[in-house]
Specification:
heterodimer, A: seven-stranded mixed β-sheet, four-stranded antiparallel β-sheet, B: mainly beta
């Protein structure tokens, strides 16, 4: 029962480098999400994909791009990393669209940008 | 901006005591959910309450919702050291597939 798997778990980048965070779910969920969690800020939504083939901006999309590769996978890309993007990134997925179902979270990617 | 705001920000109690956390929100909702996050881990869903419900129970958890006051509370009865975690409320609105999370309450249960 893997659920939501995120890779890598830890990463250190230099300013200006690019990186793709990977997320895969094995629950046949329709919706997938990327959040960032900063101390004292809770979780903030970066991008989401309500269903395969669609992506939409969340609360803090600047500096990020996403790809819904297929129903299982949803990646987050930082094209030119900045120190302000140092954070813990969480991927989540959810079952049916427009129903009261919870989100299921991965264990996060801890990203430091120097 | 955050929709939900938890109160208190931090709570420290002794094992066996009850823990109460509150959440306030600003706009109309379809449902409100509570999640737990252990240190270094992802969030785990605890309980969901719909906007037309006033109270819900799950094991040692009791959640109330007052839509007139735009507030919810999470009660954990007979707390255990293993309940030590951060607790977040999250609200689901009109689109129904996005959640907005609060900043969380850090609960410490001392043995």
């Amino acid at each position: 029962n893997a659920g939501v798997t995120q890779t890598p778990k830890f990463q250190v980048l230099k300013t200006g480098q690019s990186m793709t965070l990977q997320c895969a779910q094995d629950m046949n969920h329709n919706s997938m999400y990327w959040y960032r969690q900063d101390p004292g800020m809770g979780l903030r939504l970066i991008y989401y994909s309500a269903s395969e083939g669609t992506t939409d901006k969340g609360e803090v999309p600047n500096g990020y791009n996403v790809s819904r590769l297929n129903k299982r996978e949803f990646s987050l890309r930082l094209e030119s990393a900045a120190p302000s993007q140092t954070s813990v990134y969480f991927c989540a997925s959810r079952g049916q669209i427009k129903s009261n179902q919870p989100q299921h979270f991965g264990d996060g990617t801890r990203l430091s940008i120097l | 901006s955050q929709q939900g705001e938890e109160d208190p920000q931090a709570l420290s109690i002794q094992e066996g005591e009850n823990a109460t956390m509150n959440c306030s929100y600003k706009t109309s909702i379809n449902n409100l959910q509570w999640y737990r996050q252990n240190s270094g881990r992802g969030l785990v869903h605890l309980i969901l309450i719909r906007s037309n419900e006033r109270e819900k129970h799950s094991g040692r958890l009791r959640v109330t919702l007052d839509t007139s006051k735009k507030s919810s509370s999470l009660l954990i009865t007979a707390s255990r050291a293993a309940d030590t975690a951060s607790y977040f409320c999250a609200t689901g609105g009109g689109s129904n597939y996005k959640l907005t999370f609060g900043k969380g309450t850090l609960l410490t249960v001392n043995p």
